[in-house]
Write a structure and sequence with these properties.
The protein has 231 residues and is of the alpha/beta class. 41% of the residues lie in helices and 14% in strands. The protein has a single domain (3-9, 58-223), classed as Rossmann fold, CATH 3.40.50. It binds NADP nicotinamide-adenine-dinucleotide phosphate. NADP nicotinamide-adenine-dinucleotide phosphate (NAP) is lined by residues 7-8, 10-14, 32-33, 58-60, 83-86, 109, 136, 138, 182-183, 185-186, 188-191, 195.
C-alpha cells in the first residue's frame, strides 16, 4: 500500500485515479481547488472507510499549496501525481488570436503548478525512501507530434517535460523516480465526447503504469499503455 497525493482530483482523470487507487487499498490524499464544490469526490471519500481524504489545494497559488502541505504535515508521500490541468480552448491559442492572459494562466497551472507542488512536498516525497513523481503531461508536448496544437497548452506541457527531466536528474540520486505520463485521449470535460477512452478505463491503464514504476524509469516520457513516448 502506498500513500498517493493527487492534484485536480475533483473530476475527470484525477477523480478516477483517486477513486480507483483508494479501491486498490492505497491511502489517497485527493486534492482539489474547492472541496465544498467537489460533491462526487467527497462522496467517494465517505465511501472509502478513511483511505481517501479530500484536501483543498489550488496548484496555481503558492499560498494554497503551502497551506495544503501544512495540513498534511510530515506524512511520507510515496507517489505524487501532478494531474491538475486546464485547456483554454483552441481559438484563443492559435497564431493571430493569442489570448496572452490565458497563456499565462495555462503556464501557471500546468508548468509552475507541478513545480510548486514538488517544491512544497519534497520533504514528504524524500521521507518515503522510494518516492515517485508522476506528472500527467500530453502528447502535444512532443516535438514529434505533428498536428495543430494550442500554443498555450502545448508550451505548458512541453515546459513541464523539461522541468521534470531536470528534476529527474537532480532527485534520481536521492532515490526519487520522476516520470512524465501522457494519459491517453480521454472523454473528460477537457477533451470532450470525441476522445478515445472513458475516464475509468484510462485511469485503470494509467494506474497499471504508475504502480509498476521502478527507478529504471526515472526521466522517462511514457504513454498510458506503458510504452515510451517519442520526445
Ligand atoms: N483528457 C485528455 O484527453 C487529456 C489528454 C492529455 C493530457 N491530459 C491531461 O490530463 C490531466 C487531467 O485532465 P482531464 O482530462 O481530467 O481534465 P478535466 O476533466 O478538465 O479536469 C481537470 C482537473 O484539473 C483541476 N484544476 C484546474 N485548475 C486547477 C487548479 N488551479 N488547482 C487544482 N486543480 C485544478 C480541475 O478542477 P476544478 O474542478 O476545480 O476545475 C479538474 O479537477 C490534465 O493535466 C490534462 O492536461 C488530458
Amino acid at each position: 500500500m502506498a500513500t498517493i497525493l493527487i492534484t485536480g482530483a475533483a473530476r475527470g482523470l484525477g477523480y478516477e485515479l483517486a477513486r480507483q487507487l483508494a479501491g486498490r487499498g492505497h491511502r489517497v490524499l485527493a486534492t482539489c481547488r474547492d472541496p465544498r464544490r467537489a460533491d462526487t469526490l467527497r462522496a467517494a471519500a465517505d465511501a472509502s472507510g478513511g483511505t481517501l481524504t479530500v484536501h483543498a489545494m489550488d496548484v496555481g497559488s503558492t499560498e494554497s499549496v503551502k497551506a495544503c502541505r501544512a495540513e498534511i504535515g510530515d506524512m511520507p508521500v510515496d507517489i505524487l501525481v501532478n494531474n491538475a490541468g486546464v485547456w483554454g480552448g483552441l481559438p484563443g491559442q492559435v497564431l493571430g488570436s493569442m489570448d496572452y492572459d490565458n497563456w499565462a494562466h495555462e503556464l501557471n497551472i500546468m508548468l509552475m503548478g507541478p513545480f510548486r507542488v514538488v517544491e512544497s512536498f519534497l520533504p514528504n516525497i524524500l521521507a518515503s525512501g522510494a518516492g515517485r513523481i508522476v506528472s500527467i503531461t500530453s502528447q502535444t508536448a512532443a516535438h514529434s507530434y505533428d498536428h495543430v496544437v494550442g500554443y498555450a497548452y502545448a508550451s505548458a506541457k512541453a515546459g513541464t517535460n523539461r522541468v521534470m527531466t531536470a528534476l529527474a536528474q537532480e532527485l534520481g540520486c536521492k532515490g526519487v523516480t520522476v516520470v512524465l505520463l501522457h494519459p491517453g485521449w480521454i472523454r473528460t470535460e477537457m477533451a470532450g465526447a470525441v476522445a478515445d477512452l472513458e475516464p475509468d478505463e484510462a485511469a485503470a491503464m494509467n494506474i497499471a503504469v504508475i504502480e509498476g514504476l521502478t527507478p529504471a524509469d526515472n526521466g522517462k516520457f511514457l504513454k498510458w499503455t506503458g510504452d515510451e513516448h517519442a520526445w
